[in-house]
Amino acid sequence: ITLPLILFLFSLFLRRHFFCGFILGDDIQEFGLVSHILENGVNLNDQLALRFGVWLFNLIAFKLLGISESSFFLPTWLMSASLSVIGYYILISKKYDVYHAFFAGLIIASAPFEVLIGTVRANDLILSWLLAVGFFFFVLFEEKPFLQGMTTAFFLWFGFYVKLWVVYFLPSLGIYYLIQIVKEKKWQNTASFTAVSLMLHTNTCLLWKMKTGYLLPFIHNHAATYPVQTKDLPHLFSVYPEMIFSGSEFGTTLFGSIPYLLLLCLVVKGIRGQGGSRGFDKLDYFLTAYYGTFFLFLNFFPNAFVFDQYYSAPRIFRYLTPISFPTALHLAKLIIDFSDLKLGRLTIGKHETIIILTGIVCINLFQANIATKPGQIYYENLQAVIRDIKKEHPPALLTEAWISYFIRQLYLKDEAIKTDITPIYDTYNVSQYESWLQKNQSRFQKDTLLLTGLCSYIHYGAHFDGFRLTKFQNPLHPSWDLFKEYGMLTYLPKPEYVRLWRLSQQISPQDIADIETETSALLFKKATDLFDKHNYADAQKYFKKILTEFEKSPQTDDAFYFYAICFFRNADWRNTIAEFTKLIKTNPQSRWLAGAYYHIGLCRTALGQKDEARNMFKYVVAHFPDDTILVELSEKQLADN
Q: Of 339, 392, 399, 470, which has the maximum CB count within 10 A?
């Protein structure tokens, strides 16, 4: 038991050492789900709550240890750390040398993807763990077909209520059972698998029918889908292999050198088999079917058997989790299988094999650090900020909405009575946060703290959300003094320091009005400069920004007019009509009303709508006699048409 215990403790140490914390976009949903179930029970209308495998282990941890960061991540750490032990016992069951099996376990423990997924909270790890345990019993009970079929059925049923993707393994399993029946005349495992599967799924479906009215409610009420356009399919097919061999959107590795070494070893072993030496054995075929089947189906049938923009590896790398354990195990096994390989006078023996395995473990550790580096940076800075906030006890704390949830519900839950951790709802990108701060900062009292740079989650592309000063159009109000500067978030497309700001004095509403006027005036100047250079497309962006963020500024009316005129200058008659019609309805006091009616008339003329055009020109003449220039132009249009 000593070697498995060492493997487990080593794995656990790595997951704690490289810990990343709440950095995935689903963390709020899953943390909130478990907390809600603990207090209120299961919501039978929530498809995620109906997949009980997603939350069961976390619920047990919460009940035993209370709600905390550690109790939430504890099941993740234990499951991830135990995979190396599972790999060890799979090889031991196949009569491999105990020390070879131990070093194979070290390769699994240190595999970059395994370490990464063990330092975050992903329900894909639960599926991966259930599959790994099921595979262990599948191999262990190969000569006990009844037990093999029963355990396989149980773990696939359990996995089904984590993710539907367990069905991806059924084709390979069907081929295996077919071979067992036809070639080896064994039917017991097929019969027991079928019987136990029917029993488990039938009883579960009947329970769901009684409780919800549906046999499979989490499929009936499934998550929203976002179909991929046909033109984007080639890119989608290329992304999965790219992420396995190259890495994440940050340029960091995910699987490290493991997929390259695995392919090399497969080729070498295939050549050895052709030459009459020891070729592929049954465990090789099992492992290849294990990760190969899942990879192919995940690639071509990613979500509910349709191509999907959101629920796919291009955005959500954790979907690849179930292939990590079998690929790492297979690599280690293949290297051990080469322990009798002769290269000229050199023979790779037991000790040489251990040296090779040790080298791979060292490479894994180096790459695991790279894979988890964005999360490490995020977590270290967050904890430093939390410590300072606890010391300061500010009257209020302003942070981006996603990160404020965990600060309020977890890290500063006890301090929330003294500190108002302000939730900022329905606000996402940087421009929205800058606008929110400018409009609301006058209501916060002296010594309020503002957290910038550290915002939202890391993965899934939230790099431009929250208070990110590198993307602000204007500097902070002078009353915001820098309290402390922390580390640099080097993983961002535009790196930024984490900073905590203190409000030195309460900002008056008049200051806000002055700043808004200056800011909208600056934007208007930029827009008109571009307009004068006939760069209407870029000018429209600035005019639009004024309309959306400075609705009551002195420049808003002018911006509305010139925004519409940009369409006119580009001969976009219909959009010109639409925008000027909107101006007439929303601002009947606008100084540009005459121009709006006149230009609508010109657009109607260009579209061949002569009667509608004449009505517009007549309206200008009748209602805006003081605008002599437009009246004269309108009369000319009436005479010509």
A: 399
